[in-house]
Amino acid sequence: ALLPASARAALAASSVLNVLMVLIFVFTAIVFVMLYLGPYRNPRWVTAGFAILFLALGLAATSTGEYIREAVRKPYVIHRTVFSNGTYPQDVARLRQEGYLEGGTWTKAFVTMRYPQLIDPQGHIDRTRFAALDEDAQADLGRVVFQYQCNSCHSISGYSGIQDLTRGWTGHVTRTVIENLNQMHFFMPPWQGTPEEAGVLVKYLQQIRLPSPYGPAALPSGQRR
Amino acid sequence: MDPRQLIGPASPLGLPAPFWFIELFKVLGFTLHQTMMHLWYGGVPLAAVLSLRRDPYAVRLRTRLLVAMPVIVAFGINLGVVPLLFTQVAYYRVFYPAGVLMAWAWLSVIGLVTLAYYGVYLGSISVRNKWRPRIGRAAGWVAAALFIAIGFLFANNFSLMTNVRQWPDLLMRTSVAGAPAGTALNTADPTLIPRWLMLFGLALITTATFIGIDAAFLAGRERQEYGTWARRVSAGVGTIGLAIFGLFGTWYILSALAPSMLAEGLGKPVPAAAIILAAALPAVTWVLLVLRPRLPVRLMAALAGGAQFLALAANAAARQWVQNTELSRYLDVAEPVRMEWSPLILFLLLFVAGVGVVIWLLRRIIEVNRREAAAA
Q1: pTM for the whole thing?
Q2: What band does B224 get if pLDDT is binned at 50, 70 and 90?
Q3: C-alpha dihedral sign at B329, B334, B336, B342
Protein backbone atom coordinates (compact mmCIF):
# COMPACT_ATOMS: atom_id res chain seq x y z
CA ALA A 1 0.00 0.00 0.00
CA LEU A 2 3.01 2.26 0.37
CA LEU A 3 3.76 2.00 -3.33
CA PRO A 4 2.04 4.26 -5.89
CA ALA A 5 -0.74 2.61 -7.89
CA SER A 6 1.43 2.56 -11.04
CA ALA A 7 4.19 0.67 -9.21
CA ARG A 8 1.71 -1.89 -7.84
CA ALA A 9 0.25 -2.32 -11.32
CA ALA A 10 3.73 -2.85 -12.80
CA LEU A 11 4.51 -5.51 -10.20
CA ALA A 12 1.22 -7.26 -10.89
CA ALA A 13 1.66 -7.17 -14.66
CA SER A 14 5.28 -8.27 -15.07
CA SER A 15 6.28 -11.90 -14.53
CA VAL A 16 9.99 -10.91 -14.63
CA LEU A 17 9.46 -8.51 -11.74
CA ASN A 18 7.63 -11.21 -9.79
CA VAL A 19 10.55 -13.60 -10.22
CA LEU A 20 12.98 -10.87 -9.20
CA MET A 21 10.88 -10.01 -6.14
CA VAL A 22 11.27 -13.61 -4.98
CA LEU A 23 15.00 -13.53 -5.76
CA ILE A 24 15.63 -10.37 -3.76
CA PHE A 25 14.10 -11.98 -0.65
CA VAL A 26 16.10 -15.18 -1.24
CA PHE A 27 19.39 -13.29 -1.72
CA THR A 28 18.77 -11.06 1.30
CA ALA A 29 17.89 -14.04 3.49
CA ILE A 30 21.04 -15.91 2.41
CA VAL A 31 23.15 -12.82 3.16
CA PHE A 32 21.77 -12.59 6.70
CA VAL A 33 22.13 -16.33 7.30
CA MET A 34 25.75 -16.16 6.10
CA LEU A 35 26.34 -13.11 8.30
CA TYR A 36 24.99 -14.98 11.33
CA LEU A 37 26.69 -18.31 10.72
CA GLY A 38 29.98 -16.83 9.47
CA PRO A 39 31.37 -13.66 11.07
CA TYR A 40 29.04 -13.82 14.12
CA ARG A 41 29.07 -17.49 15.11
CA ASN A 42 32.09 -18.97 13.30
CA PRO A 43 34.61 -16.26 12.39
CA ARG A 44 37.04 -18.93 11.18
CA TRP A 45 34.68 -19.76 8.33
CA VAL A 46 35.40 -16.35 6.81
CA THR A 47 37.92 -17.31 4.17
CA ALA A 48 38.61 -15.42 0.94
CA GLY A 49 36.08 -17.66 -0.84
CA PHE A 50 33.43 -17.00 1.82
CA ALA A 51 34.05 -13.24 1.58
CA ILE A 52 33.82 -13.23 -2.23
CA LEU A 53 30.57 -15.25 -2.16
CA PHE A 54 29.18 -12.95 0.54
CA LEU A 55 30.07 -9.89 -1.56
CA ALA A 56 28.58 -11.43 -4.72
CA LEU A 57 25.29 -12.25 -2.97
CA GLY A 58 25.14 -8.79 -1.44
CA LEU A 59 25.67 -7.23 -4.86
CA ALA A 60 23.05 -9.55 -6.37
CA ALA A 61 20.50 -8.51 -3.73
CA THR A 62 21.25 -4.82 -4.22
CA SER A 63 21.24 -4.90 -8.02
CA THR A 64 18.03 -6.94 -8.09
CA GLY A 65 16.42 -4.34 -5.86
CA GLU A 66 17.71 -1.53 -8.06
CA TYR A 67 16.34 -3.21 -11.18
CA ILE A 68 12.91 -3.57 -9.59
CA ARG A 69 12.99 0.02 -8.35
CA GLU A 70 13.86 1.34 -11.81
CA ALA A 71 11.09 -0.76 -13.37
CA VAL A 72 8.26 0.13 -11.00
CA ARG A 73 8.83 3.86 -10.97
CA LYS A 74 8.15 4.19 -14.68
CA PRO A 75 6.82 6.29 -16.39
CA TYR A 76 8.45 8.68 -13.95
CA VAL A 77 11.98 9.04 -12.70
CA ILE A 78 10.58 11.21 -9.89
CA HIS A 79 6.95 10.28 -9.24
CA ARG A 80 4.52 12.71 -10.89
CA THR A 81 7.35 15.26 -11.31
CA VAL A 82 9.78 14.17 -14.04
CA PHE A 83 9.14 11.55 -16.71
CA SER A 84 11.75 8.85 -17.28
CA ASN A 85 12.88 10.63 -20.46
CA GLY A 86 13.59 13.84 -18.54
CA THR A 87 10.56 15.99 -19.39
CA TYR A 88 8.06 17.51 -16.97
CA PRO A 89 4.39 16.44 -17.15
CA GLN A 90 3.33 20.09 -17.39
CA ASP A 91 5.43 20.53 -20.56
CA VAL A 92 3.74 17.77 -22.55
CA ALA A 93 0.95 19.97 -23.94
CA ARG A 94 3.44 22.66 -25.00
CA LEU A 95 5.76 20.14 -26.67
CA ARG A 96 2.81 18.67 -28.57
CA GLN A 97 1.87 22.16 -29.69
CA GLU A 98 5.28 23.75 -30.40
CA GLY A 99 7.29 20.65 -31.20
CA TYR A 100 9.64 18.37 -29.29
CA LEU A 101 12.66 19.30 -31.40
CA GLU A 102 11.91 22.99 -30.95
CA GLY A 103 11.54 22.57 -27.18
CA GLY A 104 14.97 21.09 -26.43
CA THR A 105 18.18 23.13 -26.23
CA TRP A 106 20.34 20.48 -27.87
CA THR A 107 17.73 19.16 -30.33
CA LYS A 108 16.98 22.67 -31.58
CA ALA A 109 20.70 23.47 -31.98
CA PHE A 110 21.39 20.20 -33.78
CA VAL A 111 18.47 20.59 -36.22
CA THR A 112 19.45 24.22 -36.85
CA MET A 113 22.96 23.17 -37.82
CA ARG A 114 22.12 19.95 -39.69
CA TYR A 115 18.98 21.13 -41.48
CA PRO A 116 19.08 24.92 -41.76
CA GLN A 117 16.40 24.73 -44.48
CA LEU A 118 13.88 23.79 -41.76
CA ILE A 119 14.40 27.05 -39.85
CA ASP A 120 11.88 29.83 -40.48
CA PRO A 121 12.78 33.54 -40.48
CA GLN A 122 11.94 33.81 -36.77
CA GLY A 123 14.47 31.10 -35.99
CA HIS A 124 11.92 28.36 -35.20
CA ILE A 125 11.80 24.84 -36.62
CA ASP A 126 9.09 24.82 -39.29
CA ARG A 127 7.52 21.36 -39.10
CA THR A 128 5.62 21.80 -42.32
CA ARG A 129 8.94 21.67 -44.12
CA PHE A 130 9.69 18.11 -42.93
CA ALA A 131 7.82 16.65 -45.90
CA ALA A 132 10.15 18.45 -48.33
CA LEU A 133 13.14 16.46 -46.99
CA ASP A 134 14.02 13.17 -48.67
CA GLU A 135 13.08 9.90 -46.94
CA ASP A 136 16.52 9.33 -45.41
CA ALA A 137 16.68 12.86 -44.01
CA GLN A 138 13.21 12.44 -42.50
CA ALA A 139 14.29 9.16 -40.89
CA ASP A 140 17.44 10.91 -39.65
CA LEU A 141 15.25 13.55 -38.01
CA GLY A 142 13.18 10.74 -36.50
CA ARG A 143 16.38 9.30 -35.07
CA VAL A 144 16.98 12.60 -33.25
CA VAL A 145 13.50 12.32 -31.71
CA PHE A 146 14.26 8.70 -30.77
CA GLN A 147 17.61 9.59 -29.18
CA TYR A 148 16.07 12.19 -26.89
CA GLN A 149 12.56 10.90 -26.24
CA CYS A 150 12.96 7.11 -26.28
CA ASN A 151 16.64 6.26 -25.76
CA SER A 152 16.55 6.79 -21.98
CA CYS A 153 14.77 3.40 -21.75
CA HIS A 154 15.12 1.79 -25.19
CA SER A 155 18.34 0.90 -26.98
CA ILE A 156 18.29 0.04 -30.68
CA SER A 157 19.15 -3.65 -30.43
CA GLY A 158 20.27 -4.27 -26.83
CA TYR A 159 18.43 -3.66 -23.56
CA SER A 160 14.71 -3.18 -24.23
CA GLY A 161 15.76 -2.94 -27.88
CA ILE A 162 13.33 -1.10 -30.13
CA GLN A 163 14.16 -3.31 -33.12
CA ASP A 164 12.77 -6.33 -31.32
CA LEU A 165 9.85 -4.48 -29.77
CA THR A 166 8.68 -3.23 -33.17
CA ARG A 167 9.38 -6.50 -34.98
CA GLY A 168 6.99 -6.80 -37.90
CA TRP A 169 5.00 -3.64 -37.08
CA THR A 170 3.49 -1.81 -40.00
CA GLY A 171 3.76 1.97 -40.28
CA HIS A 172 0.12 2.27 -39.23
CA VAL A 173 0.63 0.18 -36.10
CA THR A 174 3.82 2.07 -35.22
CA ARG A 175 2.08 5.42 -35.51
CA THR A 176 -0.89 4.27 -33.44
CA VAL A 177 1.40 3.06 -30.67
CA ILE A 178 3.48 6.28 -30.69
CA GLU A 179 0.47 8.56 -30.48
CA ASN A 180 -1.11 6.49 -27.68
CA LEU A 181 1.97 5.43 -25.75
CA ASN A 182 0.66 5.90 -22.23
CA GLN A 183 -2.67 4.28 -23.09
CA MET A 184 -1.06 1.24 -24.71
CA HIS A 185 1.41 0.88 -21.83
CA PHE A 186 0.60 2.62 -18.55
CA PHE A 187 4.31 2.54 -17.59
CA MET A 188 5.33 4.70 -20.57
CA PRO A 189 5.19 8.51 -20.72
CA PRO A 190 2.76 10.14 -23.16
CA TRP A 191 3.92 11.09 -26.63
CA GLN A 192 5.53 14.53 -26.45
CA GLY A 193 5.70 15.83 -29.99
CA THR A 194 3.68 17.04 -32.96
CA PRO A 195 2.03 14.79 -35.57
CA GLU A 196 4.85 15.70 -38.00
CA GLU A 197 7.45 14.56 -35.46
CA ALA A 198 5.52 11.33 -34.93
CA GLY A 199 5.68 10.93 -38.71
CA VAL A 200 9.47 11.18 -38.90
CA LEU A 201 9.84 8.89 -35.89
CA VAL A 202 7.66 6.31 -37.67
CA LYS A 203 9.93 6.59 -40.73
CA TYR A 204 13.00 5.95 -38.57
CA LEU A 205 11.46 3.01 -36.71
CA GLN A 206 10.22 1.48 -39.94
CA GLN A 207 13.71 1.79 -41.35
CA ILE A 208 15.36 -0.13 -38.48
CA ARG A 209 12.64 -2.56 -37.36
CA LEU A 210 13.15 -6.29 -37.83
CA PRO A 211 10.76 -8.39 -39.92
CA SER A 212 8.16 -10.56 -38.26
CA PRO A 213 9.33 -14.19 -38.01
CA TYR A 214 6.04 -15.15 -39.73
CA GLY A 215 6.46 -12.71 -42.63
CA PRO A 216 4.14 -9.78 -43.41
CA ALA A 217 0.72 -10.09 -41.76
CA ALA A 218 -2.34 -10.32 -43.98
CA LEU A 219 -3.60 -6.76 -43.56
CA PRO A 220 -5.64 -4.54 -45.83
CA SER A 221 -3.17 -2.87 -48.20
CA GLY A 222 -3.94 0.59 -46.83
CA GLN A 223 -2.58 -0.40 -43.42
CA ARG A 224 0.58 -2.00 -44.70
CA ARG A 225 3.63 0.01 -45.55
CA MET B 1 24.75 29.15 -35.38
CA ASP B 2 24.96 31.36 -32.33
CA PRO B 3 26.76 29.17 -29.73
CA ARG B 4 24.63 30.76 -26.99
CA GLN B 5 21.77 28.57 -28.25
CA LEU B 6 23.51 25.65 -26.54
CA ILE B 7 23.55 27.33 -23.13
CA GLY B 8 20.73 25.96 -21.01
CA PRO B 9 17.96 28.23 -19.69
CA ALA B 10 18.35 29.89 -16.29
CA SER B 11 16.85 27.88 -13.43
CA PRO B 12 13.55 29.27 -12.16
CA LEU B 13 14.85 28.52 -8.66
CA GLY B 14 17.48 31.28 -8.97
CA LEU B 15 20.72 31.31 -6.97
CA PRO B 16 20.46 29.99 -3.37
CA ALA B 17 22.79 32.75 -2.08
CA PRO B 18 24.21 36.05 -3.41
CA PHE B 19 26.72 35.62 -6.21
CA TRP B 20 29.51 37.26 -4.18
CA PHE B 21 29.04 34.62 -1.46
CA ILE B 22 29.25 31.79 -3.98
CA GLU B 23 32.36 33.37 -5.54
CA LEU B 24 33.98 33.88 -2.14
CA PHE B 25 33.58 30.26 -1.08
CA LYS B 26 34.54 29.00 -4.52
CA VAL B 27 37.81 30.95 -4.27
CA LEU B 28 38.39 29.95 -0.64
CA GLY B 29 37.55 26.31 -1.34
CA PHE B 30 39.78 26.21 -4.41
CA THR B 31 42.65 27.78 -2.46
CA LEU B 32 42.39 25.09 0.23
CA HIS B 33 41.95 22.34 -2.36
CA GLN B 34 44.96 23.59 -4.35
CA THR B 35 47.15 23.51 -1.24
CA MET B 36 46.66 19.75 -0.93
CA MET B 37 46.12 18.91 -4.59
CA HIS B 38 49.45 20.51 -5.56
CA LEU B 39 51.23 18.22 -3.14
CA TRP B 40 50.08 15.12 -4.99
CA TYR B 41 50.22 16.74 -8.43
CA GLY B 42 53.86 17.70 -7.91
CA GLY B 43 54.79 15.40 -5.02
CA VAL B 44 53.86 11.99 -6.44
CA PRO B 45 55.83 12.53 -9.70
CA LEU B 46 58.74 13.83 -7.59
CA ALA B 47 58.59 10.69 -5.43
CA ALA B 48 58.58 8.60 -8.59
CA VAL B 49 61.71 10.39 -9.86
CA LEU B 50 63.38 9.95 -6.45
CA SER B 51 62.73 6.20 -6.70
CA LEU B 52 65.44 6.14 -9.40
CA ARG B 53 68.05 7.25 -6.86
CA ARG B 54 69.70 5.08 -4.23
CA ASP B 55 71.33 7.65 -1.93
CA PRO B 56 69.89 7.55 1.61
CA TYR B 57 68.55 11.10 1.71
CA ALA B 58 66.64 10.62 -1.56
CA VAL B 59 65.19 7.42 -0.08
CA ARG B 60 64.21 9.33 3.08
CA LEU B 61 62.56 12.18 1.17
CA ARG B 62 60.63 9.73 -1.02
CA THR B 63 59.56 7.84 2.10
CA ARG B 64 58.44 11.03 3.84
CA LEU B 65 56.47 12.19 0.79
CA LEU B 66 54.75 8.84 0.24
CA VAL B 67 53.96 8.23 3.91
CA ALA B 68 52.20 11.60 4.10
CA MET B 69 50.49 11.23 0.72
CA PRO B 70 47.40 9.11 1.61
CA VAL B 71 46.37 11.73 4.19
CA ILE B 72 47.13 14.57 1.77
CA VAL B 73 45.07 12.95 -1.00
CA ALA B 74 42.16 12.33 1.39
CA PHE B 75 42.19 15.98 2.53
CA GLY B 76 42.60 17.28 -1.01
CA ILE B 77 39.72 15.27 -2.46
CA ASN B 78 37.38 16.33 0.35
CA LEU B 79 38.41 19.97 0.02
CA GLY B 80 37.89 19.67 -3.75
CA VAL B 81 34.18 19.07 -3.21
CA VAL B 82 33.73 22.68 -2.03
CA PRO B 83 34.88 24.52 -5.18
CA LEU B 84 33.32 21.89 -7.42
CA LEU B 85 29.90 22.34 -5.78
CA PHE B 86 30.12 26.13 -5.86
CA THR B 87 31.18 25.98 -9.53
CA GLN B 88 28.06 23.94 -10.26
CA VAL B 89 25.88 26.41 -8.40
CA ALA B 90 27.42 29.49 -10.04
CA TYR B 91 28.00 28.24 -13.58
CA TYR B 92 25.57 25.33 -14.01
CA ARG B 93 24.42 26.70 -17.37
CA VAL B 94 27.87 26.17 -18.88
CA PHE B 95 29.46 23.62 -16.53
CA TYR B 96 26.97 20.84 -17.32
CA PRO B 97 26.99 21.23 -21.13
CA ALA B 98 30.81 21.13 -21.08
CA GLY B 99 30.65 18.02 -18.87
CA VAL B 100 28.12 16.39 -21.23
CA LEU B 101 30.25 17.07 -24.31
CA MET B 102 33.28 15.38 -22.72
CA ALA B 103 31.31 13.00 -20.48
CA TRP B 104 33.46 9.88 -20.92
CA ALA B 105 36.68 11.68 -20.05
CA TRP B 106 35.02 13.71 -17.29
CA LEU B 107 33.38 10.71 -15.59
CA SER B 108 36.55 8.65 -16.01
CA VAL B 109 38.14 11.01 -13.46
CA ILE B 110 36.32 9.05 -10.71
CA GLY B 111 37.95 5.79 -11.81
CA LEU B 112 41.33 7.40 -12.44
CA VAL B 113 41.39 9.10 -9.02
CA THR B 114 40.44 5.81 -7.37
CA LEU B 115 43.25 3.97 -9.16
CA ALA B 116 45.76 6.74 -8.41
CA TYR B 117 44.70 6.66 -4.76
CA TYR B 118 45.33 2.90 -4.62
CA GLY B 119 48.71 3.54 -6.28
CA VAL B 120 49.56 6.08 -3.58
CA TYR B 121 48.55 3.59 -0.87
CA LEU B 122 50.66 0.84 -2.43
CA GLY B 123 53.63 3.21 -2.69
CA SER B 124 53.12 4.34 0.89
CA ILE B 125 52.79 0.79 2.26
CA SER B 126 55.82 -0.25 0.26
CA VAL B 127 58.15 2.41 1.71
CA ARG B 128 56.74 2.23 5.23
CA ASN B 129 56.87 -1.57 5.59
CA LYS B 130 59.65 -2.23 3.08
CA TRP B 131 57.10 -4.35 1.20
CA ARG B 132 57.72 -5.35 -2.44
CA PRO B 133 59.83 -2.33 -3.51
CA ARG B 134 59.31 -3.01 -7.22
CA ILE B 135 55.55 -2.97 -6.88
CA GLY B 136 55.80 0.17 -4.75
CA ARG B 137 57.93 1.92 -7.38
CA ALA B 138 55.67 0.82 -10.24
CA ALA B 139 52.57 1.93 -8.31
CA GLY B 140 54.21 5.31 -7.69
CA TRP B 141 54.91 5.85 -11.39
CA VAL B 142 51.38 4.80 -12.36
CA ALA B 143 49.87 7.11 -9.73
CA ALA B 144 52.08 10.00 -10.93
CA ALA B 145 51.00 9.47 -14.56
CA LEU B 146 47.34 9.21 -13.52
CA PHE B 147 47.45 12.44 -11.49
CA ILE B 148 49.01 14.31 -14.41
CA ALA B 149 46.35 12.85 -16.74
CA ILE B 150 43.59 13.85 -14.29
CA GLY B 151 45.01 17.39 -14.29
CA PHE B 152 44.74 17.37 -18.09
CA LEU B 153 41.08 16.30 -17.93
CA PHE B 154 40.23 18.96 -15.33
CA ALA B 155 41.96 21.61 -17.45
CA ASN B 156 39.86 20.35 -20.38
CA ASN B 157 36.52 20.62 -18.61
CA PHE B 158 37.16 24.00 -17.02
CA SER B 159 38.51 25.51 -20.24
CA LEU B 160 35.66 23.99 -22.27
CA MET B 161 33.19 25.52 -19.80
CA THR B 162 34.20 29.01 -20.93
CA ASN B 163 34.99 28.07 -24.55
CA VAL B 164 31.30 28.22 -25.55
CA ARG B 165 32.25 29.27 -29.10
CA GLN B 166 33.63 25.75 -29.68
CA TRP B 167 30.55 23.84 -28.53
CA PRO B 168 28.54 23.72 -31.80
CA ASP B 169 31.50 22.27 -33.68
CA LEU B 170 32.16 19.69 -30.95
CA LEU B 171 28.47 18.75 -30.86
CA MET B 172 28.35 18.18 -34.61
CA ARG B 173 31.60 16.20 -34.61
CA THR B 174 30.85 13.95 -31.65
CA SER B 175 27.08 13.47 -31.55
CA VAL B 176 24.99 10.48 -32.48
CA ALA B 177 21.80 11.79 -34.11
CA GLY B 178 22.13 15.04 -32.21
CA ALA B 179 22.81 13.43 -28.82
CA PRO B 180 26.35 14.17 -27.59
CA ALA B 181 28.35 10.95 -27.38
CA GLY B 182 30.52 12.54 -24.68
CA THR B 183 33.74 11.88 -26.56
CA ALA B 184 34.84 15.50 -27.09
CA LEU B 185 37.92 17.12 -25.61
CA ASN B 186 38.84 20.79 -25.69
CA THR B 187 42.15 20.15 -27.43
CA ALA B 188 41.54 22.81 -30.12
CA ASP B 189 41.62 25.50 -27.41
CA PRO B 190 45.03 27.23 -27.50
CA THR B 191 44.77 27.97 -23.76
CA LEU B 192 44.49 24.29 -22.75
CA ILE B 193 48.15 23.22 -22.70
CA PRO B 194 49.53 26.37 -20.99
CA ARG B 195 46.71 26.28 -18.48
CA TRP B 196 47.41 22.66 -17.60
CA LEU B 197 51.19 23.01 -17.36
CA MET B 198 51.13 26.41 -15.64
CA LEU B 199 49.32 24.74 -12.76
CA PHE B 200 51.84 21.88 -12.81
CA GLY B 201 54.64 24.44 -12.40
CA LEU B 202 52.78 26.07 -9.51
CA ALA B 203 52.26 22.60 -8.00
CA LEU B 204 56.01 21.97 -8.08
CA ILE B 205 56.63 25.24 -6.20
CA THR B 206 54.00 24.23 -3.60
CA THR B 207 55.67 20.80 -3.29
CA ALA B 208 59.07 22.48 -2.87
CA THR B 209 57.59 24.66 -0.12
CA PHE B 210 56.15 21.58 1.57
CA ILE B 211 59.56 19.86 1.50
CA GLY B 212 61.06 22.93 3.20
CA ILE B 213 58.31 23.06 5.84
CA ASP B 214 58.52 19.30 6.41
CA ALA B 215 62.31 19.48 6.90
CA ALA B 216 62.02 22.44 9.28
CA PHE B 217 59.02 21.39 11.39
CA LEU B 218 58.25 17.70 10.95
CA ALA B 219 61.54 15.90 10.37
CA GLY B 220 62.64 15.82 13.99
CA ARG B 221 63.67 12.17 13.79
CA GLU B 222 65.84 12.68 10.72
CA ARG B 223 69.54 13.47 10.88
CA GLN B 224 70.60 17.11 10.90
CA GLU B 225 72.23 16.71 7.46
CA TYR B 226 68.92 15.57 6.02
CA GLY B 227 67.45 19.02 6.71
CA THR B 228 70.26 20.74 4.78
CA TRP B 229 69.91 18.28 1.89
CA ALA B 230 66.11 18.59 1.82
CA ARG B 231 66.34 22.39 1.68
CA ARG B 232 68.67 22.08 -1.31
CA VAL B 233 66.20 19.78 -3.06
CA SER B 234 63.41 22.18 -2.15
CA ALA B 235 65.33 25.00 -3.85
CA GLY B 236 65.95 22.86 -6.95
CA VAL B 237 62.33 21.73 -7.29
CA GLY B 238 61.16 25.29 -6.65
CA THR B 239 63.43 26.60 -9.42
CA ILE B 240 62.14 24.05 -11.93
CA GLY B 241 58.57 24.83 -10.83
CA LEU B 242 59.07 28.58 -11.22
CA ALA B 243 60.59 28.11 -14.68
CA ILE B 244 57.60 26.00 -15.81
CA PHE B 245 55.13 28.39 -14.16
CA GLY B 246 56.78 31.43 -15.76
CA LEU B 247 56.99 29.87 -19.22
CA PHE B 248 53.47 28.49 -19.40
CA GLY B 249 51.97 31.35 -17.38
CA THR B 250 53.28 33.81 -19.97
CA TRP B 251 51.98 31.58 -22.76
CA TYR B 252 48.59 31.39 -21.00
CA ILE B 253 48.33 35.15 -20.57
CA LEU B 254 49.30 35.75 -24.21
CA SER B 255 46.92 33.09 -25.55
CA ALA B 256 43.92 33.43 -23.22
CA LEU B 257 43.74 37.06 -22.25
CA ALA B 258 43.13 39.58 -25.00
CA PRO B 259 45.11 42.80 -24.39
CA SER B 260 41.84 44.70 -23.88
CA MET B 261 40.68 42.13 -21.32
CA LEU B 262 43.98 42.30 -19.45
CA ALA B 263 43.89 46.10 -19.50
CA GLU B 264 40.33 46.01 -18.16
CA GLY B 265 41.38 43.71 -15.33
CA LEU B 266 44.41 45.78 -14.44
CA GLY B 267 42.20 48.87 -14.36
CA LYS B 268 40.10 47.55 -11.46
CA PRO B 269 41.66 47.26 -7.98
CA VAL B 270 40.59 43.73 -6.96
CA PRO B 271 41.28 41.90 -10.26
CA ALA B 272 44.50 43.91 -10.69
CA ALA B 273 45.71 42.90 -7.23
CA ALA B 274 44.78 39.25 -7.86
CA ILE B 275 46.51 39.13 -11.27
CA ILE B 276 49.69 40.86 -10.07
CA LEU B 277 49.93 38.81 -6.86
CA ALA B 278 49.18 35.54 -8.71
CA ALA B 279 52.09 36.28 -11.05
CA ALA B 280 54.52 37.71 -8.47
CA LEU B 281 54.03 35.70 -5.27
CA PRO B 282 55.39 32.38 -6.60
CA ALA B 283 58.62 34.30 -7.28
CA VAL B 284 58.61 35.54 -3.66
CA THR B 285 58.26 31.93 -2.49
CA TRP B 286 61.15 30.97 -4.76
CA VAL B 287 63.34 33.75 -3.30
CA LEU B 288 62.62 32.45 0.20
CA LEU B 289 63.39 28.86 -0.84
CA VAL B 290 66.49 29.51 -2.92
CA LEU B 291 68.21 32.65 -1.68
CA ARG B 292 67.48 31.91 1.97
CA PRO B 293 68.13 35.26 3.62
CA ARG B 294 69.93 34.84 6.97
CA LEU B 295 66.93 34.05 9.11
CA PRO B 296 66.11 31.05 11.32
CA VAL B 297 65.26 27.97 9.23
CA ARG B 298 61.79 27.60 10.70
CA LEU B 299 60.94 31.24 10.15
CA MET B 300 62.12 30.97 6.55
CA ALA B 301 60.03 27.85 5.96
CA ALA B 302 56.97 29.47 7.55
CA LEU B 303 57.41 32.63 5.45
CA ALA B 304 57.74 30.55 2.27
CA GLY B 305 54.60 28.61 3.26
CA GLY B 306 52.69 31.85 3.88
CA ALA B 307 53.83 33.38 0.59
CA GLN B 308 52.86 30.27 -1.38
CA PHE B 309 49.44 30.06 0.33
CA LEU B 310 48.78 33.68 -0.63
CA ALA B 311 50.00 32.89 -4.17
CA LEU B 312 47.43 30.10 -4.39
CA ALA B 313 44.69 32.38 -3.05
CA ALA B 314 45.63 35.08 -5.59
CA ASN B 315 45.69 32.44 -8.33
CA ALA B 316 42.18 31.27 -7.37
CA ALA B 317 40.89 34.86 -7.27
CA ALA B 318 42.47 35.74 -10.63
CA ARG B 319 40.94 32.61 -12.18
CA GLN B 320 37.55 33.66 -10.82
CA TRP B 321 37.86 37.05 -12.52
CA VAL B 322 38.98 35.44 -15.81
CA GLN B 323 36.06 32.98 -15.70
CA ASN B 324 33.52 35.74 -15.07
CA THR B 325 34.99 37.93 -17.80
CA GLU B 326 35.12 35.13 -20.36
CA LEU B 327 31.57 34.03 -19.59
CA SER B 328 30.17 37.57 -19.59
CA ARG B 329 30.35 37.37 -23.40
CA TYR B 330 27.73 34.62 -23.35
CA LEU B 331 25.55 34.97 -20.27
CA ASP B 332 24.76 37.04 -17.21
CA VAL B 333 25.98 34.93 -14.29
CA ALA B 334 24.41 37.21 -11.67
CA GLU B 335 20.94 35.64 -11.60
CA PRO B 336 18.08 36.52 -9.23
CA VAL B 337 18.71 35.27 -5.69
CA ARG B 338 16.22 33.21 -3.68
CA MET B 339 17.96 32.69 -0.36
CA GLU B 340 17.97 29.17 1.06
CA TRP B 341 19.02 29.74 4.63
CA SER B 342 18.90 26.24 6.13
CA PRO B 343 21.51 24.59 3.83
CA LEU B 344 23.59 27.77 3.99
CA ILE B 345 23.69 27.81 7.80
CA LEU B 346 24.39 24.08 7.91
CA PHE B 347 27.22 24.50 5.40
CA LEU B 348 28.81 27.35 7.37
CA LEU B 349 28.59 25.47 10.67
CA LEU B 350 30.13 22.33 9.18
CA PHE B 351 32.76 24.35 7.36
CA VAL B 352 33.91 26.07 10.57
CA ALA B 353 33.86 22.74 12.44
CA GLY B 354 35.83 21.05 9.64
CA VAL B 355 38.48 23.77 9.57
CA GLY B 356 38.73 23.50 13.37
CA VAL B 357 39.28 19.74 13.18
CA VAL B 358 41.98 20.16 10.51
CA ILE B 359 43.81 22.77 12.62
CA TRP B 360 43.61 20.50 15.67
CA LEU B 361 44.99 17.57 13.64
CA LEU B 362 47.89 19.66 12.33
CA ARG B 363 48.75 20.88 15.83
CA ARG B 364 48.73 17.29 17.10
CA ILE B 365 51.11 16.25 14.30
CA ILE B 366 53.52 19.10 15.15
CA GLU B 367 53.35 18.31 18.90
CA VAL B 368 54.12 14.61 18.34
CA ASN B 369 57.00 15.55 16.08
CA ARG B 370 58.42 17.93 18.70
CA ARG B 371 58.26 15.22 21.36
CA GLU B 372 59.99 12.75 19.04
CA ALA B 373 62.69 15.31 18.21
CA ALA B 374 63.28 16.01 21.89
CA ALA B 375 63.51 12.28 22.68
CA ALA B 376 65.91 11.56 19.79
Answers
A1: 0.87
A2: confident
A3: positive
Element spanning B176, H or E: strand B175-176
Mind listing the pLDDT tens digit for each residue in B171-203?
999 999 999 999 999 999 999 999 999 999 999
Cβ–Cβ below 8 Å for B171 and A148: no
The dihedral through the CA atoms of A190, A192, A196, A199 has a sign that is: negative
**Do the chains contact at A109 and B168, CB–CB below 8 Å?**
yes
The model's pLDDT over B18-56, given as tens digits with 9 standing for 90+, comes to 999 999 999 999 999 999 999 999 999 999 999 999 999
State the complex-level ipTM.
0.81
Task: Name the closest residue on chain B to residue A144, using Cα atoms.
Answer: B177
- Measure CB to CB from residue B179 to each of A111, A140, A148 and give the nearest one: A148
Q: Cβ contact (<8 Å) for B178 and A151?
A: no
Please tell me whether residue B68 adopts helix, strand or coil conformation. Answer: helix
Preceding omega of A75 cis (within 30 degrees of 0) = yes
